[in-house]
Amino acid sequence: MPDTPLTRRALNRATLARQMLLAREQVPVLAAVERLLALQAQQARPPFVGLWSRVAGFERAALNALLQRREVVRATLMRGTLHLSSAKDYLHLRSTFSPMLEASVASVLRERAKGLDIPPLVQEGRAFFEEAPRTFEALRDHLVARHPRTDERAMGFAVRMFLPLIQVPTETEWGYPGTTDFAVAESWLGAPLNAEADLPTLVQRYLAAFGPASVGDAQTWSGLKGLKPTFEALRPSLRTFRDENGRELFDLPTAPRPDEDTPAPARFLPDFDSLVLGHDDRARWVDEVYRPKLVTKNLRVPATFLVDGFIAGTWSVERKRAGATLVAEPFVPLKKKKDREALVKEAEALLRFVEPDARTFEVRGL
To answer: Distance between CA atoms of 237 and 136, rounded to whole angstroms?
Structure first.
């Protein structure tokens, strides 16, 4: 059968449905984390905001409880960056990312990687973190004492990429302090990692959370190269589409693909939200002219807000004494009063979530 064409709006609505952004959904927090596969967690607060925007009645304590019970973990996964995932998914999929993580040592360190004897370093790192959860600063001090002539940060980075590690949560408000302890994943979770890579499961889970999508989209999101053979092997079990530029897209046959005229509510997304980073072609989210505003030169991904399902600007929170202010910066002035009113209402609720001890709340820029 010929590939079905999908408009930009149809793609937008399809992915919003999987991302729980067409309506907040009544779903347990652990199930929401697994449905999203993982939440970008370069900083501690963003996953909480991301779940607040997606899960009906979400409370900070619910995610903190999962972290304390070790049912959700913060660890290095997609693109070699920190994510929150369920412990079950981490144990199953961590080995799938190992080739990418290990290859990053040579690609990131370049000349500094030469001369590193990585297997003994990883063994030393494992023994160090097995004794007790510790910081990476402590690990580097430990390694420097043993290898005084070797680049300490290069050694630390090699251990971080080769050794499966979990960040240890604390009782702080967003689960993790600025400097965190690390523990060996198998010891922290009391279970072994799946020894084999499972690319078919990863691709299917990706499509469930971000589809319809191309091979290039999946590679950009995951940081993995060479996914085309996996897509080809799965082709008989998938549906194929074409976007407005003729790109081939893949999807699960029964995944939701709402009508493109389905209403999409105002929503605020946190810094580094996976929605922004889930595709190579971000046309389903934002006009190309604004794409440079989504990933800055220093690789920062600002918090964004959605109007009619599309990214319409960025936002930040300012806190001064007892007052909290959400400052919005639309890409262009918002013309429709109903859009501004919906955003202000959502922004006020978000301020109360992220700054619950503030006494006054203000929204600027809308």
So the answer is: 44
Q: Measured between alpha carbons, how far is residue 315 from residues 271, 301, 353, 354 in Å?
A: 9, 11, 15, 13
Among 91, 169, 165, 180, which Cα is nearest to 125's?
165
CA atoms of 173 and 150, how far apart (whole Å): 38
Rounded-to-integer distance, Cα 196 and Cα 94, Å: 9
Q: Virtual CA dihedral for 61, 62, 64, 65, nearest 10 degrees?
A: 110
The residue assigned the tokens 């810094």 is 271
pTM confidence score: 0.95
- Sorting pLDDT into bands at 50, 70 and 90, what band is 107? confident
Positive or negative: CA dihedral 82, 224, 164, 108: negative
**What's the pLDDT score for residue 23?**
97
Per-residue confidence at 298, pLDDT binned at 50, 70, 90?
A: low
Sort 263 into a burial class: Cβ within 10 Å, 0-12 / 13-18 / 19+. Answer: exposed
Q: Which two tokens stand for residue 184?
A: 């060996």
